[in-house]
Amino acid sequence: MGTVQANGIEIAYELHGDSGGLPLVLVGELGQQLVGWHPDLIRAMVRRGFQVLVYDNRDVGFSTHFDQLGQPDLVAVMSGNADAAPYTLDDMAADAVGLMDALGWRSAHIFGISMGGMIAQIVALSFPDRVRSLTSVSATTGSHGVGHAARDATAVVLRPMVASREAYADGAERAHNIIGSAEFSPDREWIRRQAGLAWERRYDPHGTARHLTAILAAGDLTPDLARLEIPALIVHGANDPLIPVASGRLTAAAIPSAELLEIDGMGHDIPRQVWDRLLDKLDDVAHRGEVAAAARRASASISSFGHS
To answer: Which CATH number does the domain housing residue 60 bear?
Structure first.
């Protein structure tokens, strides 16, 4: 693991795979630390030719925590006062690009899950020349017109603070039972192990709450997504109780170049049983992204030659 200064904060990260691989940035969900990405999934991505970058978002793990901001005012943000959010998803998108800058990555394929999917969408919109392809998993555009969470799923997001590693692992397992892929056998050992690792690195419920206010304060990206020109893959579980599949369908419909992969039985997670199918599609969208990037470089070269 390494740390760098990026966008004015310190970000902890890990790189997996050969430096000659296709650069792939994984952007985590609400409160997720870099240890929340299954190492077998990362290895599978590396075997397919990617160099995989995982990192701690601000306010989790070993990245900068905004402790001085304290517990955010969720009620104010939920009531429509976006200014009450300590920071925005745009700030978190700038963190990702700042990390790429620090590592010398001119552009990359961006893959985000849930909140990370929204951040990935914002990176693609705000920094289009930095993104070769977009993969958005189990995410929303921020539209309030579709995709209302089930009540018990909402309770998972708002679960109370705990005082021990064991209690935190218990909570992670209970959360998976509610929002995970019920039709696939869960890897309970992994769920508990990664929760324990996250606890040991740093448990910060106030940081997670600040993530939540950033999500709640985000506007509707749906109209803006229509101007994306990069290849995009939208992945959503047909059985997602937290961000229902209607949100994935809306995201795919909003992006002209998007392909929708809707997976029966999948909830708000990425179970091992769907990895091969997901990675096949990731290969496809990355290939399209590489072809498009090469075409842009050729066009720029021709244009430059014509003006010389």
So the answer is: 3.40.50.1820
